[in-house]
Amino acid sequence: SGQYYCLVQTELxxxxxxxxxxxxxxxxxxxxLSSPSGGIKEGSSVTLxxxxxxxxxANYTWFKNNQPLLWEPxxxxxxxxxxxxxxxxxxAENKYGHLSSNSIFLNVTYAPKTPSVTVSxxxxxxEGSSVTLxxxxxxxxxAxxTWLKIHEDSVKELGQNYTITNITSELGETITAKHIMQLxxxxxxx
Length: 190
Fold this sequence. Notes:
Blueprint: E1 2-4, E2 7-8, E3 14-15, E4 19-21, E5 25-35, E6 39-41, E7 46-55, E8 59-64, E9 67-69, E10 75-77, E11 86-94, E12 97-100, E13 104-109, E14 116-120, E15 131-136, E16 144-149, E17 155-158, E18 161-164, E19 181-186
């Protein structure tokens, strides 16, 4: 593609009029970018853009986890959410060809959601028995778990599970798991 002219070498050096040569071609050199890149904190704004070299200009289709999306490039998330986390790519197409981009992983980081605690075995817990307390919380990066006993400052256990063996009670009565422990959940700073 380009602009051409003819130069006639005479004493007068005559130059022709310009002519334009336009070459049509399918998409080449396609890429998808995230701005900003890397881990994106929940609630932040992020823009995904797609570009390619094509003539005429390509039409784009976005995909998230290989499912098509009804977006036009670029696409901006004004307030990114945990469910926006995933692998994105775009597909460029014109009448002369088509091409898919590289994939980009949008990593949305977020604080732990309300934890859930389970007890095994469930129900009442009697003196002398054993019980395992398990905790889970949705977080990115993964949460760190700390088990504490109510009204005590010392850490009882680190990790998602805490097994208590040979349970005793100063009152000598049956107790329930919700009276034994409280849970602290934290994540490293973003």
